[in-house]
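User: Can you predict the 3D structure for this chain?
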Amino acid sequence: MDTMENSQERNKWLSHFWLGIYVFVLAFAAFYPALQGSFLNWDDEMNFVYNTAWRGLGAANIKWMFTSFFSTHYTPLAWLTLGFDYKLWGMNPFGYHLTALLFHGAAALCLFALLRLLFELAAPESEKLHINISAVLGALFFAVHPLRVESVAWITERRDVTGGFFALLCSWLYVRAARTKERRFYFASVAAFAAALLCRESEAALAPSLLLLDWYPLGRLGESPREWFLKERIGVWIEKIPYFALAAAASLLAVIGTAREGYIDILKLPFAQRMAQFFAGLAFYIVKTIFPVGLSPFYARPGFSLADIPWSILLLVALIILAFWLRRFRALWVALGVYLLFVIPTLGAVTMTSYACDRYSYMSCIGFAGLFGAAVLALRLDRRVFYGPAIVVVALLCALSVRQSSYWGDSLTLWQRAVDIAPGSLSYQKRGEAYMELGKYAEAREDLLKAAKLYPDADVLSKLASAELRLGNPAAALDYLKQALVLEPDTWYVHLMLARAYAAAAQEQNAIAEFSYCIKAAHDARERCTALCERGAFMLKQRDEGAALSDFNSAISLEADNPAVFCSVASSFSSIGDLQKALYYYNSALKADPAYPPALAGRNALAAMMGASNGNGKN
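Assistant: Here is the predicted structure, written as structure tokens:
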């Protein structure tokens, strides 16, 4: 008898294992084009290319990860995974995308395990096979949905997939603890929740979401809200203390990070636009979950007014009426509650130029995936064959995700897609910057002019000036930069561009003055190094090698472990034909990082030039 029970248990475990592998593989496969992606000019450069503090797992790296509010976020555990990637892959983006896909696949696996437990509680009379298939389809609805692409394919959003994985692991462990009464699962759930918060502060919404699971399907709070606070329910509330304490701490850190960085929030909009944007944002993710077409990395905020509010409110009222009409289906209320808990905090985090972001759907739309699986199970229980249509839906979502992932391969493709879907100032600016990186300066100027007409801020005017400089028009560049200074007289980057423009226009004294200003006004070591290297390069072209070396040495002393500094110095010497000094500094860069691609490419190019020169000398 024991042998038969053991055999059945083993077969059950194996079936769950292989179904989980199936979910993991499909979740991975839906985003495989992302593996060929690069670092994008959409925060990736700021976070990973220019920022070197995260590169590695040394004491200084880890200290920075746990003390930094970089770009307003406190996400040390997400940074740790990126530091680990750097140790394995260097700056090869393939490895970072691979890790993101692995985390996303693991999150889908956790969701499958969670839904299987929840469906067993909600429909105990169902056959295990139907429960398993419904859980698979629900997990895949989440995992292969095109709204996930931004979180998975964008290296900057590592915090989404890591935080989502730990949040879903926490939820599964919590339900497991509630079912088995084993404290080890409870404590593991609290630990997973802490890990989720260290990946992304917004996972704090999971704490009240667990209460919704206690209401249904766990049934630990009773059906009516009036039963929630009865004496016999006190244990359910007490066990939430660690979750809410951790959530409060994470929320405080989020407020501190936002205050430190001076992040622009929705409160700076007029009231009418604020209300319209709020309701439009609430409706956006529901609509895109049902109709996942026209997805873009950026949705330009239209000129919202009070007239736009009714359409969004109408959708939300319709959902509430549907929920009341189907009030006995408590799963709908749970899904809607989870959605609101996760999405409402993000509606105040979007910038003044955008009203929604696909990545904010990663956890907020988890409940809708559960509803999809629950609908499959419920219709199957009513003897309706529903697997076929559900499988078709999942297959279509998967195909859409494969296509959407391909848009995130490089900056130009990404922003071409954004211009096609939602043209706006930022879309044109970023496509212009992508053209600049490819050396297509005329196309870049055209896009940047469009961006400046739509929203003439100092940043886009500075980029427009850069394009003019590349096209050999320093006078036009100076005109744009003077306009930028009127808008933002103290912006460091504008002054740096002004120094470059003066240098290109052969206005030596003005160029030196602006470079010197940038050195004094630099906000950090990176900016100071940049200004020192550029002033040094200018002095080198003026044949003042002593002054140039002084600036170069000052820059190196600030960031002696940054190979980019050595490469900048090497490039300066190479530009005046001093190949021996250039080779020395390229070798110094490779001592700091033996695999640094620009240093390897620069040294190889120099070797070819020096070899050709020696060959000509022999002839």
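The chain has two domains: 2-406, 423-521. The longest helix spans residues 93-122.
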